[in-house]
């Protein structure tokens, strides 16, 4: 699907549910895109996946979100002027429903890879209509429902109620139809009943009576119709061809060398033509008669593809073929047209695609396909073996071919540039996502993730200040016993040593068990129990201290050791500063923990008596050091932490 559908979903979900809910939905679906490009293709599964994610987050039903997404798309495409396109289809909602396939047909020029569904009205009355929806994608029937409800409300000012009458192969939440036994996807078919006030449409469009002056018109020879539309077809109730336009006969002959054109008359239309659009319907009298306002695309089959090929020697006698479609037509007229056409061309020609409307003419009880070849430029005209004077003398067929020729190269260049820009934009978005991730990592290295998310949501930095009843604060100071005469060389050695030691310590920090607060000079500071509350803060900090001591030994740096000390108690923490904001800790606990480190010994871990009591209960190996004079606290009993907790058998 194109990005415009996802853009509409993103815009209105953020508007009605907030940025946080949208980010949670993207995270749940595993979608890495934070911005969608209008003309970029994305997986069909994204729409139902996002609906399922939002349903799980908000508790609302999945179908409700699919309907909501359909409504969002209608609101969103007004920014591109497509609401004016819909309004231009007709005065009434029923006019729009008749024209949905035609709109999709025109949209293919802008969105060339669009896989549009097919929709036709099968019944129309004063209380509404019956709409048949066909698609190769499942799970989007509720999405269509939302679109119809919003179009009726916003563009036609009417309320519509929709219910499903029949449904085939429509799997809720799916994106591709089930596989048929013969291969390929089964078509999803859903029949809707749309109830709305349709009285004015019926009065103006269906129950309208012919003006008396029209009833006085004299009969017109059907051959005049074929002169005006040289590519026209006339079909009877059995869907057999009763008359063919001169240029269509000539095109048939170009694609069916050594076959008589009289084979067309009386043959089933499906033997020589393939219905390309509308898709999903069978070529029957009733189906075609119901779809008189829909644009049809019919492909002329080549000789190798046509069914029921006959030997030209056994061709049907022109006199025995009925081509009379009114009282003034005759088989002789038709046979003269067919036999007077010169043969030219070869089997290597491009297949002709005819586009037009199927009209029912009551006087002759026939369907007339009023069409023109679908040709974009002079090159395609040549590939089909046609000339400009072969095209309809009326309308804009010839002008469109000339216009297509003059603008084709320019349009092609513009499309290439747009595709290149789309690729560049996609690359830029990927780089932006990469830079954002790097920025996030840098931010999270300065302040805790939970605090950063609160600041992103607009919380004042002063409001991040928080008190913690009990945490454990650790200080570790790298000790160097080797000095040198060269102060610059010694300083560089110190920097390398600290980088190696602190990097090793960083690898030991795992949230939420511990958080690195800062490094000041040769001192490394960490805390457990803040900003994420952790009831096992003393245990986790003891394990971290032992691992730090072991990591310094494993580095095997000559003359390098570490003094470690920690203490447990209450603190206050919050963000300080604007230029380089830091998450700082305050309180007597921080000072006491610092004294445990400064009064300790190299390659030893000193803990306060209060923290030691907690660790003893957990089975850690501790040795009583005695009383130590602590500035501002007096004498304090301290302990050496000598080993991890012993697991009980």
UniProtKB/TrEMBL annotation:
Q: Does the keyword Hydrolase apply?
A: no
CC terms in the record's Gene Ontology section? guanylate cyclase complex, soluble
By sequence similarity, the record places it as follows: Belongs to the adenylyl cyclase class-4/guanylyl cyclase family.
What is one process in the GO biological process aspect for this record?
A: cGMP-mediated signaling
In residue numbers, the region (Disordered) covers 305-340
In its UniProt record, a GO molecular function of this protein is: GTP binding
The chain positions of domain Guanylate cyclase read: 472-597
Domain of life of the source: Eukaryota
Top-rank EC class of the record's enzyme:
lyase
Please classify the protein's predominant subcellular localization into one broad category. cytoplasm
Return the Basic and acidic residues bias intervals. Answer: 308-317
Q: What is this protein called?
A: guanylate cyclase
Q: Which organism is it from?
A: Anopheles dirus
Subcellular localization(s) per the UniProt record: Cytoplasm
State if Nucleotide-binding is listed as a keyword.
yes
Looking up InterPro entries in the UniProt record yields: A/G_cyclase, A/G_cyclase_CS, H-NOX_domain_sf, Heme_NO-bd, HNOB_dom_associated, HNOB_dom_associated_sf, NO_sig/Golgi_transp_ligand-bd, Nucleotide_cyclase
Give residue spans, biased composition: Low complexity: 320-331
- Print the keywords alphabetically: cGMP biosynthesis, Cytoplasm, GTP-binding, Lyase, Nucleotide-binding
EC number of the protein: 4.6.1.2
């Amino acid at each position: 699907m194109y990005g415009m559908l996802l853009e509409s979903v993103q815009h209105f979900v953020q508007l009605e549910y907030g940025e946080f809910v949208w980010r949670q939905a993207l995270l749940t679906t595993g979608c890495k895109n934070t911005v969608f490009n209008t003309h970029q293709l994305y997986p069909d599964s994204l729409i139902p996946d996002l609906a399922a994610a939002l349903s799980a987050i908000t508790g609302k039903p999945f179908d409700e979100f699919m309907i909501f997404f359909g409504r969002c798309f209608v609101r969103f495409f007004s920014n591109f002027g497509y609401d004016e396109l819909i309004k231009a289809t007709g005065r009434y909602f029923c006019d729009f429903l008749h024209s949905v396939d035609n709109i999709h047909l025109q949209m293919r020029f802008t969105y060339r890879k669009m896989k549009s569904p097919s929709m036709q009205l099968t019944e129309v009355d004063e209380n509404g209509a019956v709409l048949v929806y066909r698609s190769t994608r499942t799970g989007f029937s509720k999405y269509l429902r939302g679109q119809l409800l919003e179009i009726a409300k916003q563009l036609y000012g009417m309320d519509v109620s929709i219910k499903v009458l029949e449904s085939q192969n429509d799997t809720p939440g799916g994106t591709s139809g089930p596989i048929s036994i013969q291969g390929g996807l089964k078509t999803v078919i859903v029949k809707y009943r749309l109830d709305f006030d349709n009285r004015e449409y019926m009065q103006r469009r269906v129950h309208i009576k012919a003006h008396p002056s029209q009833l006085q018109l004299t009969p017109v020879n059907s051959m005049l119709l074929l002169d005006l539309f040289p590519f026209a077809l006339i079909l009877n109730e059995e869907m057999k061809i009763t008359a063919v336009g001169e240029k269509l006969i000539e095109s048939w002959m170009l694609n069916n060398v050594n076959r008589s054109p009289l084979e067309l008359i009386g043959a089933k239309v499906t033997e020589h033509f393939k219905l390309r659009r509308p898709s999903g319907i069978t070529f029957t009298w009733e189906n075609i008669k119901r779809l008189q306002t829909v644009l049809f695309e019919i492909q002329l089959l080549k000789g190798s593809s046509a069914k029921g090929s006959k030997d030209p020697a056994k061709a049907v006698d022109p006199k025995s073929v009925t081509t009379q479609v009114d009282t003034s037509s005759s088989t002789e007229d038709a046979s003269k047209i067919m036999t007077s056409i010169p043969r030219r061309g070869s089997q290597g020609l491009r297949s002709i695609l005819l586009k037009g409307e199927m009209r029912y003419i009551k006087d002759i009880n026939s369907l007339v396909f009023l069409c023109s070849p679908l040709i974009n430029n002079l090159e395609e005209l040549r590939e089909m073996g046609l000339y400009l004077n072969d095209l309809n003398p009326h309308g804009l067929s010839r002008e469109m071919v000339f216009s297509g020729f003059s603008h084709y190269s320019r349009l092609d260049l513009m499309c290439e540039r747009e595709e290149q820009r789309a690729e560049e934009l996609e690359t830029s978005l990927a780089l932006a996502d990469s830079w954002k991730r790097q920025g996030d990592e840098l931010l999270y290295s300065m302040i805790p993730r939970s605090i950063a998310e609160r600041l992103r949501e607009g919380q004042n930095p002063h409001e991040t200040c928080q008190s913690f009843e009990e945490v454990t604060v650790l200080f570790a100071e790298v000790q160097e016993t080797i000095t040198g005469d060269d102060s610059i060389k010694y300083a560089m050695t110190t920097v390398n040593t600290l980088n190696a030691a602190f990097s090793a310590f960083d690898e030991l920090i795992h949230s939420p068990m511990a958080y690195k607060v800062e490094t000041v000079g040769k001192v490394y500071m960490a805390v457990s129990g803040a900003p994420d509350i952790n009831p096992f803060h003393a245990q986790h900090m003891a394990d971290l201290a032992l691992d730090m001591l072991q990591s310094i030994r494993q580095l095997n740096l000559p003359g390098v050791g570490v003094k470690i000390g920690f203490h447990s108690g209450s603190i206050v923490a919050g963000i300080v500063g604007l230029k380089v904001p830091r998450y700082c800790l305050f309180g007597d606990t921080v000072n006491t923990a610092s004294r445990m480190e400064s009064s300790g010994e190299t390659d030893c871990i000193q803990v306060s008596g209060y923290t030691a009591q907690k660790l003893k209960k957990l089975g850690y190996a501790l040795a009583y050091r005695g009383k130590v004079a602590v500035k501002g606290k007096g004498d304090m009993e301290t302990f050496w932490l000598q080993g991890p907790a012993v697991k009980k058998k």
